[in-house]
Amino acid sequence: MDIKQYLKRIGLNHNIDVTLDTLKKIHRQHLLTVPFENLDIHIKGELNTDSESLFKKIVKQNRGGICYELNWLFHRLLKEIGFQTTVVGAKVASEKDNGTYFDHVVVIVDLNETKYLVDVGFGKHFLEPVTFVENSVYKDPKGLFKLVKKDDNLYVLTNYNEKSDSYKEAYTFKYEPKRIEDFNVRKTYYVKSDDSHFKKNLICSRETEDGRISLKQDRVIITREGMKEQYPVKTFNDYNHYLKQYFNIELSEYEKEKLSSWYNQ
Protein backbone atom coordinates (compact mmCIF):
# COMPACT_ATOMS: atom_id res chain seq x y z
CA MET A 1 0.00 0.00 0.00
CA ASP A 2 1.19 3.50 -0.87
CA ILE A 3 0.76 5.21 2.51
CA LYS A 4 1.81 8.59 1.15
CA GLN A 5 -0.87 8.48 -1.58
CA TYR A 6 -3.56 7.34 0.88
CA LEU A 7 -2.72 10.14 3.32
CA LYS A 8 -2.74 12.67 0.48
CA ARG A 9 -6.24 11.45 -0.41
CA ILE A 10 -7.45 12.46 3.06
CA GLY A 11 -5.53 15.73 3.15
CA LEU A 12 -2.53 14.75 5.30
CA ASN A 13 1.20 14.60 4.71
CA HIS A 14 3.20 11.42 5.28
CA ASN A 15 5.18 12.64 8.28
CA ILE A 16 3.26 10.64 10.88
CA ASP A 17 4.02 8.29 13.74
CA VAL A 18 2.22 5.71 15.85
CA THR A 19 0.58 7.98 18.44
CA LEU A 20 -2.92 8.71 19.67
CA ASP A 21 -2.72 12.16 18.09
CA THR A 22 -2.01 10.56 14.72
CA LEU A 23 -4.86 8.07 15.13
CA LYS A 24 -7.30 10.87 15.94
CA LYS A 25 -6.07 13.00 13.04
CA ILE A 26 -6.31 10.20 10.46
CA HIS A 27 -9.73 9.08 11.72
CA ARG A 28 -11.13 12.60 11.63
CA GLN A 29 -9.73 13.44 8.20
CA HIS A 30 -11.00 10.17 6.75
CA LEU A 31 -14.56 10.97 7.82
CA LEU A 32 -14.31 14.54 6.50
CA THR A 33 -13.00 13.53 3.07
CA VAL A 34 -14.06 9.97 2.19
CA PRO A 35 -17.83 9.52 1.78
CA PHE A 36 -20.00 6.70 2.98
CA GLU A 37 -21.60 5.67 -0.32
CA ASN A 38 -23.21 2.68 -2.00
CA LEU A 39 -22.97 3.63 -5.68
CA ASP A 40 -21.20 0.44 -6.79
CA ILE A 41 -24.15 -1.63 -5.59
CA HIS A 42 -26.19 0.10 -8.31
CA ILE A 43 -23.41 0.43 -10.88
CA LYS A 44 -21.76 -2.99 -10.68
CA GLY A 45 -24.14 -5.07 -8.59
CA GLU A 46 -21.19 -6.14 -6.42
CA LEU A 47 -18.59 -4.90 -3.95
CA ASN A 48 -14.96 -5.95 -4.27
CA THR A 49 -13.24 -6.01 -0.88
CA ASP A 50 -9.72 -7.11 -1.74
CA SER A 51 -7.22 -4.45 -0.67
CA GLU A 52 -5.95 -3.70 -4.18
CA SER A 53 -9.45 -3.03 -5.55
CA LEU A 54 -10.36 -0.92 -2.53
CA PHE A 55 -7.21 1.19 -2.80
CA LYS A 56 -7.87 1.84 -6.48
CA LYS A 57 -11.49 2.83 -5.84
CA ILE A 58 -11.17 4.89 -2.66
CA VAL A 59 -7.72 6.43 -3.07
CA LYS A 60 -7.01 6.59 -6.80
CA GLN A 61 -10.57 7.16 -8.03
CA ASN A 62 -11.61 9.45 -5.17
CA ARG A 63 -14.62 7.36 -4.21
CA GLY A 64 -16.00 6.06 -0.93
CA GLY A 65 -17.83 2.90 0.10
CA ILE A 66 -19.79 1.15 2.83
CA CYS A 67 -18.35 -0.35 6.01
CA TYR A 68 -16.90 -3.50 4.43
CA GLU A 69 -14.86 -1.31 2.12
CA LEU A 70 -14.05 1.74 4.24
CA ASN A 71 -13.20 0.08 7.53
CA TRP A 72 -11.29 -2.80 5.95
CA LEU A 73 -9.05 -0.49 3.91
CA PHE A 74 -8.65 1.84 6.91
CA HIS A 75 -7.57 -1.17 8.99
CA ARG A 76 -4.96 -1.97 6.32
CA LEU A 77 -3.70 1.63 6.38
CA LEU A 78 -3.35 1.63 10.16
CA LYS A 79 -1.42 -1.66 10.09
CA GLU A 80 0.92 -0.33 7.42
CA ILE A 81 1.62 2.74 9.56
CA GLY A 82 2.37 0.48 12.54
CA PHE A 83 -0.79 0.40 14.64
CA GLN A 84 -1.97 -2.86 16.20
CA THR A 85 -5.50 -3.52 14.93
CA THR A 86 -8.24 -6.11 15.26
CA VAL A 87 -11.25 -6.35 12.93
CA VAL A 88 -14.52 -7.46 14.55
CA GLY A 89 -18.13 -7.84 13.47
CA ALA A 90 -21.12 -5.90 14.77
CA LYS A 91 -24.91 -6.26 14.76
CA VAL A 92 -26.58 -2.97 13.83
CA ALA A 93 -29.54 -1.95 16.01
CA SER A 94 -31.56 -0.59 13.08
CA GLU A 95 -31.61 -4.06 11.51
CA LYS A 96 -33.65 -5.25 14.53
CA ASP A 97 -34.56 -8.95 14.34
CA ASN A 98 -32.92 -9.27 10.93
CA GLY A 99 -29.49 -8.29 12.27
CA THR A 100 -26.40 -10.50 12.52
CA TYR A 101 -22.91 -9.95 13.88
CA PHE A 102 -21.77 -9.49 10.29
CA ASP A 103 -23.91 -6.38 9.60
CA HIS A 104 -20.96 -4.11 10.16
CA VAL A 105 -17.15 -4.09 10.23
CA VAL A 106 -15.51 -2.39 13.22
CA VAL A 107 -11.80 -1.87 13.96
CA ILE A 108 -10.24 -1.93 17.43
CA VAL A 109 -6.80 -0.38 17.93
CA ASP A 110 -4.48 -1.34 20.80
CA LEU A 111 -2.16 1.55 21.64
CA ASN A 112 -0.06 1.98 24.79
CA GLU A 113 -2.14 -0.59 26.71
CA THR A 114 -5.38 1.19 25.85
CA LYS A 115 -7.99 0.08 23.31
CA TYR A 116 -9.84 2.42 20.95
CA LEU A 117 -12.96 1.81 18.88
CA VAL A 118 -12.32 3.00 15.33
CA ASP A 119 -15.07 3.34 12.71
CA VAL A 120 -14.98 5.34 9.45
CA GLY A 121 -17.83 3.41 7.81
CA PHE A 122 -21.07 3.93 9.72
CA GLY A 123 -22.48 7.16 8.34
CA LYS A 124 -23.41 9.63 11.09
CA HIS A 125 -21.15 8.68 13.98
CA PHE A 126 -18.28 9.76 16.23
CA LEU A 127 -15.53 11.88 14.66
CA GLU A 128 -12.62 10.62 16.77
CA PRO A 129 -11.84 7.12 18.15
CA VAL A 130 -13.77 6.10 21.26
CA THR A 131 -11.67 4.98 24.23
CA PHE A 132 -12.52 1.54 25.61
CA VAL A 133 -13.71 2.69 29.03
CA GLU A 134 -16.83 0.74 29.95
CA ASN A 135 -19.97 2.66 30.98
CA SER A 136 -18.12 5.96 30.84
CA VAL A 137 -19.46 8.83 28.69
CA TYR A 138 -17.15 9.77 25.82
CA LYS A 139 -17.55 13.36 24.64
CA ASP A 140 -16.96 13.64 20.91
CA PRO A 141 -17.31 16.68 18.62
CA LYS A 142 -20.36 14.88 17.17
CA GLY A 143 -22.07 14.04 20.45
CA LEU A 144 -21.96 11.84 23.54
CA PHE A 145 -21.17 8.11 23.28
CA LYS A 146 -21.03 5.30 25.80
CA LEU A 147 -19.57 1.80 25.52
CA VAL A 148 -21.47 -0.76 27.61
CA LYS A 149 -20.01 -4.18 28.36
CA LYS A 150 -22.54 -7.02 28.27
CA ASP A 151 -20.23 -9.94 29.03
CA ASP A 152 -16.60 -10.98 28.57
CA ASN A 153 -16.45 -10.20 24.84
CA LEU A 154 -19.77 -8.51 24.03
CA TYR A 155 -20.05 -4.72 23.89
CA VAL A 156 -22.78 -2.24 22.98
CA LEU A 157 -22.02 1.18 21.53
CA THR A 158 -24.69 3.76 22.41
CA ASN A 159 -25.05 7.45 21.60
CA TYR A 160 -27.05 10.13 23.37
CA ASN A 161 -30.36 11.19 21.83
CA GLU A 162 -31.52 14.65 22.89
CA LYS A 163 -35.17 14.12 21.93
CA SER A 164 -35.59 11.10 24.20
CA ASP A 165 -32.94 12.24 26.72
CA SER A 166 -31.48 8.75 26.68
CA TYR A 167 -28.71 6.67 25.14
CA LYS A 168 -29.74 4.70 22.04
CA GLU A 169 -28.00 1.58 20.82
CA ALA A 170 -26.00 1.98 17.61
CA TYR A 171 -24.59 -1.53 17.37
CA THR A 172 -23.44 -4.52 19.41
CA PHE A 173 -20.12 -6.19 18.68
CA LYS A 174 -18.24 -9.27 19.77
CA TYR A 175 -14.55 -8.87 20.48
CA GLU A 176 -13.62 -11.78 18.22
CA PRO A 177 -11.12 -11.30 15.34
CA LYS A 178 -12.61 -11.58 11.85
CA ARG A 179 -11.33 -11.74 8.26
CA ILE A 180 -13.03 -9.72 5.54
CA GLU A 181 -14.13 -13.01 3.93
CA ASP A 182 -16.21 -13.77 7.03
CA PHE A 183 -18.59 -10.97 5.99
CA ASN A 184 -19.25 -12.25 2.46
CA VAL A 185 -22.70 -13.73 3.11
CA ARG A 186 -24.01 -10.59 4.79
CA LYS A 187 -22.35 -8.38 2.20
CA THR A 188 -24.15 -10.30 -0.53
CA TYR A 189 -27.45 -9.70 1.26
CA TYR A 190 -26.88 -5.93 1.29
CA VAL A 191 -25.87 -5.94 -2.37
CA LYS A 192 -28.47 -8.32 -3.81
CA SER A 193 -31.56 -8.47 -1.58
CA ASP A 194 -34.61 -6.36 -2.42
CA ASP A 195 -35.05 -5.93 1.35
CA SER A 196 -31.66 -4.25 1.70
CA HIS A 197 -31.81 -0.50 2.39
CA PHE A 198 -28.63 -0.18 0.30
CA LYS A 199 -30.45 -1.74 -2.66
CA LYS A 200 -33.47 0.55 -2.18
CA ASN A 201 -31.57 3.85 -2.06
CA LEU A 202 -28.70 5.82 -3.51
CA ILE A 203 -26.57 6.97 -0.57
CA CYS A 204 -23.61 9.33 -0.44
CA SER A 205 -22.76 11.12 2.79
CA ARG A 206 -19.81 12.59 4.67
CA GLU A 207 -19.04 14.51 7.81
CA THR A 208 -18.24 18.23 7.88
CA GLU A 209 -16.66 20.20 10.71
CA ASP A 210 -20.07 21.58 11.78
CA GLY A 211 -22.46 18.95 10.49
CA ARG A 212 -23.00 16.58 7.61
CA ILE A 213 -23.85 16.49 3.90
CA SER A 214 -26.05 13.65 2.64
CA LEU A 215 -27.18 12.97 -0.92
CA LYS A 216 -29.99 10.55 -1.78
CA GLN A 217 -31.76 9.93 -5.06
CA ASP A 218 -34.45 12.51 -4.31
CA ARG A 219 -32.80 15.14 -2.10
CA VAL A 220 -29.64 16.62 -0.68
CA ILE A 221 -29.55 17.35 3.06
CA ILE A 222 -27.07 19.84 4.50
CA THR A 223 -26.82 19.91 8.29
CA ARG A 224 -24.97 22.77 9.98
CA GLU A 225 -24.82 23.06 13.77
CA GLY A 226 -27.97 20.96 14.12
CA MET A 227 -29.99 22.89 11.52
CA LYS A 228 -31.05 21.04 8.36
CA GLU A 229 -31.58 22.39 4.86
CA GLN A 230 -33.04 20.16 2.15
CA TYR A 231 -33.02 20.64 -1.60
CA PRO A 232 -34.85 18.45 -4.11
CA VAL A 233 -33.02 16.26 -6.61
CA LYS A 234 -35.36 15.97 -9.58
CA THR A 235 -33.10 14.80 -12.40
CA PHE A 236 -29.92 12.82 -12.85
CA ASN A 237 -28.18 16.04 -13.87
CA ASP A 238 -29.06 17.42 -10.43
CA TYR A 239 -27.73 14.30 -8.77
CA ASN A 240 -24.51 14.26 -10.78
CA HIS A 241 -23.96 17.96 -10.06
CA TYR A 242 -24.25 17.43 -6.28
CA LEU A 243 -21.93 14.40 -6.42
CA LYS A 244 -19.23 16.59 -7.92
CA GLN A 245 -19.96 19.69 -5.82
CA TYR A 246 -20.07 18.08 -2.38
CA PHE A 247 -18.08 14.85 -2.78
CA ASN A 248 -15.73 15.54 -5.69
CA ILE A 249 -16.91 12.34 -7.38
CA GLU A 250 -16.71 12.32 -11.17
CA LEU A 251 -18.52 9.42 -12.81
CA SER A 252 -17.51 7.71 -16.04
CA GLU A 253 -19.99 7.65 -18.91
CA TYR A 254 -20.80 4.03 -18.08
CA GLU A 255 -21.41 4.87 -14.43
CA LYS A 256 -23.63 7.79 -15.40
CA GLU A 257 -25.68 5.53 -17.65
CA LYS A 258 -26.20 2.97 -14.88
CA LEU A 259 -27.22 5.52 -12.23
CA SER A 260 -29.37 7.63 -14.54
CA SER A 261 -31.82 4.70 -14.71
CA TRP A 262 -33.12 5.88 -11.31
CA TYR A 263 -34.57 8.90 -13.09
CA ASN A 264 -35.87 7.18 -16.22
CA GLN A 265 -38.49 5.01 -14.54
Description:
The protein has 265 residues and is of the alpha+beta class. It has two domains: 187 residues, Arylamine N-acetyltransferase fold; 74 residues, 2-Layer Sandwich (Arylamine N-acetyltransferase fold), CATH 3.30.2140.10. A hairpin with a 3-residue loop joins strand 11 and strand 12. The longest helix is centred in the N-terminal third of the chain and has 15 residues.
- CATH level 1 name of the largest domain: Alpha Beta
Taken together, the total number of domains comes to 2
Q: Which strand order do you get reading across the main beta sheet? A: 5-4-3-2-9-8-7-6
| Beta content | 25-35%
Largest sheet: number of strands, sense, barrel closure: 8 strands, antiparallel
Question: In the CATH classification, which architecture of the largest domain applies?
Answer: 2-Layer Sandwich
* Tally of separate helices: 9
Shape: globular
The helicity comes to: 25-40%
What is CATH's topology name of the largest domain? Arylamine N-acetyltransferase fold
N-C termini distance = 41 Å
Number of strands: 13
The radius of gyration is 18 Å
Question: What average pLDDT do the residues reach?
Answer: 93
Structural class, please? alpha+beta
Main features:
265 residues; alpha+beta; Arylamine N-acetyltransferase fold; 2 domains; five-stranded antiparallel sheet; Arylamine_N-AcTrfase; acyltransferase
Architecture blueprint of SSEs:
Elements: H1 3-9, H2 20-33, E1 36-37, H3 39-43, H4 51-60, H5 67-81, E2 84-92, E3 104-111, E4 114-118, E5 130-131, E6 137-140, E7 143-151, E8 154-161, E9 166-174, H6 184-192, H7 197-200, E10 204-208, E11 211-215, E12 219-224, E13 227-232, H8 236-247, H9 253-260
Antiparallel strand pairs: 1-10, 2-3, 2-9, 3-4, 4-5, 6-7, 7-8, 8-9, 10-11, 11-12, 12-13
